[in-house]
Amino acid sequence: MRKAELRLEVAGAGEVSALLLQPADPRALFVLGHGAGAGMRHAFMEGVAHRLASRGFASLRYQFPYMEQGRHRPDGQPMLLATVRAAVGTAADRLPALPLLAGGKSMGGRMTSLAAAASPLAPVRGVVLFGFPLHAAGRPATERAAHLAEVALPLLFLQGTRDRLADLSLLGPICRKLGPRAALHVIEGADHGFAVHRKTGRTREAVLEELADVTAEWAAPLL
Length: 223
Prior knowledge:
- The structure is a single chain.
- This protein is α/β, with parallel strands linked by helices.
- The chain has a single domain, classed as 3-Layer(aba) Sandwich (Rossmann fold), CATH 3.40.50.1820.
- The chain contains 6 helices and 8 strands; from the N terminus they run βββαβααβαββαβα.
- It has an 8-stranded mixed sheet, sandwiched between helices.
- It is globular and about 40 Å long.
- The two termini are 21 Å apart.
């Protein structure tokens, strides 16, 4: 397993940090953005990256500018989307022989889907969304999903049944309306961060393994 610290240039924001994790013989490269409240080194991001690596997938995690600069408030949407595109471009340049997939945790995944909806996110072949933030906590709504119909790529939604940012009674119909290019996998008992109650008998590690298994199986036909 090889790990490299990188820098990538974001127009209007300067450089941000990135982490490339590469198994011995990778079959694809995932470009993964972090959630709004935690950066690329968060335990969830680390856990997903390492479990994907054990299944043959390299990953490039990256910081959004506000997180890189130690600010708490996320950048405006144009800057977030520019960062997604910069990360995808860096990944394509760094390992040009590998098929690319993209997405991320919560905000990172949503910004990736928004970028793909705005204009083709070439050469990305599919988008994986770990906890799509459909609405604010406890305030069910569907406006944040309006752009998904414009994403001309396969989409994988990984959601917990206790996720207060994604009412499954709303997200399920959205995915069905998107048709066969959208897949929804539900993690029983998981919250927005994919934590589960001890009484379920499941561990956080088991949930991470499930997330990686489902993601790898979904990605295989796209490679």
